[in-house]
Structure formats: C-alpha cells, structure tokens
C-alpha cells in the first residue's frame, strides 16, 4: 500500500535527516582528527595542518607508547579494574535491587527513601579519605573497585526493571513449585534480565575504564596506576617518561610528545569503543523498561 506524503512532511523529513548528518559530522570530526594526528608528522601537528587526513605518515607515537613499560602495566591495571570492578558492581547492584523490587518486602518505601538519600548527600572527600585509610584500602588494588561498588542510580534502574520487566506471575508460579527467594533470583530473575544487565555492564565498565580521580587521590604506587592517570599526566602535565624522551632534545621532545598524546588517546579509547556494537541491541529495552516505568 503506497502512502503519499505531503510537501510539509517531506520538508520535515529532509530537515531531520540533514540535522542528523550535521550532528554526526560534528561528533565524528574530532575523532577523525585525533586518529589522523596520531599517524601524522609531529612537526605538521605543531603547525596545526592536520584536519581530516593524516600527513607525513609516521607511527613514532605508537612506537614510543608500546616501548614504555608503564603504559603496558597501566593498561593491564585498567583492564583488571574494569573487569573485576564491573563484576562486583553488577553483583552488588542486583542483590540490592531484587529485594527492593519485591512488593511483599517489608518497609520497602522506607528503604527506597534511604537509598535515594545517598544520591544527594555524601560524606565528602576528606571523611571518605579518612575512611579509606582506616579500612587499609589506601594504595591497594581494591581501593579502585570497592568504594564505588554500588551506584544508587543504577540500582534504582535495575530495581525498576525487576519490578516491571520480570512478570510477577512467573515468580508466584516458582513459589508454588517450591522455589525459595535465592532460587527465584538465580534461576528466573537474572536470566530474564539480560537487557538491563548488559546496559549496566557498559555503564559501569565505561566508568571504571575512564576513572582516574580516585587513583590520583588514593594511589601512590605507580605500578597500580590505571591507564587514564598516565594519560592525564601526559596530556595535562605534559610529562613524558624517560623511555619516551630518552636522547631527545627539548624541542624534539615536545614535537614527539604531540604524536604520543594523540596515539595514547586512540590506544585508550579503541577498546571501550569496541564493546558498544555488542551491547547496543539491549539499550532500548533495558533503558526504557528500567527507567520509564515506576
């Protein structure tokens, strides 16, 4: 069946498509510029002659990065923080959200008020620092994954998904069949919650991958530094390690440093970007069911 569109609808469609194209170009241009700069001659980067395509092809920035042991160790640390931290996040969030999603849970509203209260008020940086010291977490691996084990906002989203995305009739049938709460949670609720779990894995994972502030405060041992903290030192403080700057004059070091900055941004960004295509299909269902319905 052919449906004719009016002139005004065609104009609106053309405007929407044009706007989306412009928006995509605005988003893609900085990424393309950084990628091109990472493969371009340092002198041309300093002159600001790199726009879309790389000029004076070179991989000196990548060579300096992959020859630096600090980059490799921080990369491994970041992967460990992301994988272990995200696993802890999902586990803690799920076991916290499930009882709050049960309508037969006593004083549910009171507990929700207490949970929501933490979104607006915290202990502050100094009390948190003192607590970390007293718990002997300072300058340890676990200081990067335990203090932020549960995000209140993500817990509320998962709780809402459990309440509206998992049919109550199935849980009631499981109770009749003799299942207890742990069996219902493990055998019914979790398998049916793949969309929201996938979405929260991405949210938590990106947060861990990009985390540097806690590392800057709580870590002293450079062997525990995440990749983003090394990237911050290079981008903000313009510090190159001895492995990167050995034998270079100051002017040459500055030029090579530009290539290293762009190359390191690519190295730090590509892995997390590769995760998006595999989780994208869960976004609509997971976010809508977990956030819109109360």
List the helices and strands and how they pair.
Elements: H1 7-38, H2 42-47, H3 60-66, H4 69-101, H5 108-120, H6 125-134, H7 152-165, H8 168-176, H9 181-189, H10 194-210, H11 213-218, H12 227-235, H13 242-245, H14 250-273, H15 276-291
Helix pairs in contact: 1-14, 3-14, 4-7, 4-10, 4-12, 7-15, 8-9, 10-15, 12-14
Which descriptors apply to this entry?
mainly alpha; globular; 15 helices
Written account of the structure:
The structure is a single chain. By secondary structure, this protein is an all-alpha fold. It is 71% helix and 0% strand. The chain has 15 helices and no strands. It has helices at residues 7-38, 42-47, 60-66, 69-101, 108-120, 125-134, 152-165, 168-176, 181-189, 194-210, 213-218, 227-235, 242-245, 250-273, 276-291. α4 (69-101) crosses α7 and α12 runs antiparallel to α14 (250-273). The two termini are 39 Å apart. Residues 290-294 have low confidence and may be disordered.
């Amino acid at each position: 069946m052919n449906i004719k569109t009016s002139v005004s609808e065609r104009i609106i469609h053309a405007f929407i498509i044009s706007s989306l194209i412009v928006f995509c170009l605005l988003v893609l241009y900085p990424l393309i510029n950084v990628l091109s700069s990472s493969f371009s001659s340092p002198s041309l980067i300093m002159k600001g002659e790199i726009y879309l395509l790389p000029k004076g092809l070179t991989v000196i920035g990548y060579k300096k990065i992959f020859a630096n042991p600090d980059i490799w160790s921080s990369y491994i640390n970041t992967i460990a923080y992301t994988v272990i931290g995200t696993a802890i996040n999902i586990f803690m969030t799920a076991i916290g959200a499930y009882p709050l999603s049960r309508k037969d849970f006593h004083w549910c509203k009171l507990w929700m008020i207490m949970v929501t209260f933490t979104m607006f008020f915290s202990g502050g940086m100094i009390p948190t620092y003192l607590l970390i010291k007293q718990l002997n977490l300072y300058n340890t691996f676990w200081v990067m994954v335990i203090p932020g084990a549960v995000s209140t906002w993500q817990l509320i989203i998962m709780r809402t998904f459990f309440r509206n995305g998992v049919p109550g009739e199935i849980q009631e049938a499981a109770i009749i069949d003799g299942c207890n709460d742990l069996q219902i949670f493990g055998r019914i609720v979790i398998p049916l919650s793949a969309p929201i779990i996938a979405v929260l894995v991405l949210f938590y994972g990106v947060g861990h991958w990009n985390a540097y502030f806690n590392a800057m405060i709580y870590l002293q041992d450079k062997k525990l530094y995440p990749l983003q903290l090394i990237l911050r030192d290079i981008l903000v403080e313009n510090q190159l390690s001895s492995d990167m700057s050995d034998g270079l004059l100051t002017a040459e070091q500055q030029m090579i440093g530009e290539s290293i900055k762009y190359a390191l941004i690519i190295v730090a960004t590509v892995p997390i970007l590769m995760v998006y295509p595999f989780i994208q299909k869960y976004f609509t269902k997971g976010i809508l069911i977990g956030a819109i319905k109360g």
